[in-house]
Amino acid sequence: MINVHYFTFNGFQENTYVLYDDTKECVIIDPGCYSNEEQKELSKFITDKQLKPIKLLNTHCHIDHVLGNNFVASTYQVGLEMHKNDLPILHATPEYGHMYGFNIDKSPEPTTFLDEGDVVPFGNSELSIVYAPGHAPGHIAFISHNDKFVIGGDILFYQSIGRTDLPGGDYNTLINSIKTKFLTLPDDYKVYTGHGPSTTIGFEKSNNPFLNQ
User: Fold this and answer.
1) How many domains does the chain contain in total?
2) How far is Cα 160 from Cα 48, in angstroms, rounded to an integer?
3) Beta bridge partners of 131
4) pLDDT value, residue 102
5) How many CB atoms neighbour CB 121 within 10 A?
6) CA–CA dist 199, 177 (Å, integer)
7) Does the chain have fewer CB atoms within 10 Å around its N or its C terminus?
8) Alpha-carbon gap, residue 113 to 121, rounded angstroms
9) Looking at residue 111, which CATH number applies to its domain?
10) Is the whole model's pTM more than 0.90, yes or no?
11) Helix, strand, coil % (nearest 5) of the chain?
12) How far is CA 174 from CA 60, 168, 187, in A?
């Protein structure tokens, strides 16, 4: 069974995820840790749980989701894995950082590109990849079919959806991604979101105003 632990980091209140199983291998998804205190909080959890980080994963590369990329990569000697279509966004993060008041270290370059149909293994577990653009051009989500959950980034939120007014965003594309990649999952699948509380596929089918227009 995959254990899911999350932290809410930085001024954007971004959710950073650590996934691990009984082997103690873990993956870190969207590290948003920016301050020294946030970095210490993440590393303390990993130390206290005696975890071994083996992968750094980005659902997408907007600044709030990559502020801790360099820290995680350098601290745990892991390579970055992401979708190739978000590479321009990753490269633009230092410039965007200054606009938002963040003085950030340049993210490491990806060592692996992930795409629809790929599988990310760790320990005795695996995550399936779906490609779901609309919020960002290279947005992907990580699905555990065994444990019935999705690490969805900024695609689908509790009674809301990701914004589409940022570079590379498109409303119709996002709605199509949600309907074809998320709402086709069983109702009891839990959705761990990039911001705010988690939700379920079934709840959003019935209660999300953006999906019932």
Assistant:
1) 1
2) 35
3) 140
4) 78
5) 12
6) 17
7) C
8) 14
9) 3.60.15.10
10) yes
11) 30, 30, 40
12) 14, 11, 20
Quick one: how far is CA 44 from the chain centroid?
21
N residues, the chain = 213
Cα 208 off chain centre by: 21
The amino acid at 90:
L
- Burial label for 101, CB within 10 Å (0-12, 13-18, 19+), is exposed
In tens, the pLDDT along 108-145 reads 999 999 999 999 999 999 999 999 999 999 999 999 99
DSSP 8-state class, residue 195: B
How many CB atoms are closer than 10 A to CB 208? Answer: 19
Domain that holds residue 48: 3-211
Amino acid letter, residue 132:
A
Cβ count near 89 (within 10 Å): 24
